[in-house]
Design brief:
Strand content: 25-35%
Region (Disordered): 1-20
Protein name: DMSO/TMAO reductase YedYZ molybdopterin-dependent catalytic subunit
CATH class: Alpha Beta
Helix content: under 10%
Domain Oxidoreductase molybdopterin-binding: 35-179
Number of strands: 13
InterPro entries: OxRdtase_Mopterin-bd_dom (IPR000572), OxRdtase_Mopterin-bd_sf (IPR036374)
């Protein structure tokens, strides 16, 4: 069952800079979830990167906090047609999690606590394009917005920024995730309006 919050109905005047086609600005941070919100205690949180050969690399909360973090300000775009400018996040670049990972894979499936998955090409997570985020607007990331940790891939529709992140699994071939298996586009570029397959 989908869960909606404030912000899904209001249209706001567009700012001077362009929006992807079909989008409108919101000052809210609407929430759409496919099920109940997992409440994951940061003390028990863990992230696993698993290669196509089965090799695993793991980080716990203390390990995440010890990594070099960045403060980023980005626009985000939801497939449900809202966009939000200048959102402020703190997190670790995905590149940092791949420094010691040997892989020939081209694709990643992000896994979330609660069972949600989404697929992303590996290139879209590297070179400063994506983060493992744990703060939003200067505060710890709330569970309703994916806390304690979510993937942040702002150049794609926001369903690709998997909430409640617990793992990244590498694949040689593109493996559709939850929303992609249910009709959403495999890639999800908002500037090309890649909403549905």
């Amino acid at each position: 069952m989908a869960v909606f919050t404030r912000g899904f109905g209001g249209h706001h005047p567009e700012a001077d800079r362009p929006l992807p086609p079909g989008q409108h600005l919101t000052a809210d941070f609407p929430v759409l979830s496919a099920g109940p919100t997992p409440n994951v205690d940061a003390a028990r949180w863990e992230l696993t990167v698993r290669t196509e050969s089965g090799a695993e690399h793991r980080w716990d909360w203390a390990g995440l906090q010890a990594m070099p973090a960045e403060d980023v300000t980005v626009d985000i775009h939801c497939v449900t047609r809202w966009s939000k400018h200048d959102t402020r996040w703190r997190g670790v670049p995905v590149d940092a999690f791949f420094e010691d990972v040997e892989t020939a894979a081209d694709f990643v499936v992000a896994h979330s606590y609660g069972g949600y998955t989404t697929n992303v090409p590996l290139d879209d997570l590297l070179d400063g394009r994506a983060w493992v985020a744990y703060e939003y607007e200067g505060d710890p990331l709330e569970p309703v917005h994916g806390g304690p940790v979510r993937l942040l891939v702002p150049h794609l529709y926001f369903w690709k920024s998997a909430k409640w992140l617990r793992g990244l699994t590498l694949h040689e071939h593109d493996e559709p995730g939850f929303w992609e298996q249910n009709g959403y586009h495999l890639y999800g570029d908002p500037w090309s309006e890649q909403r549905y397959s």
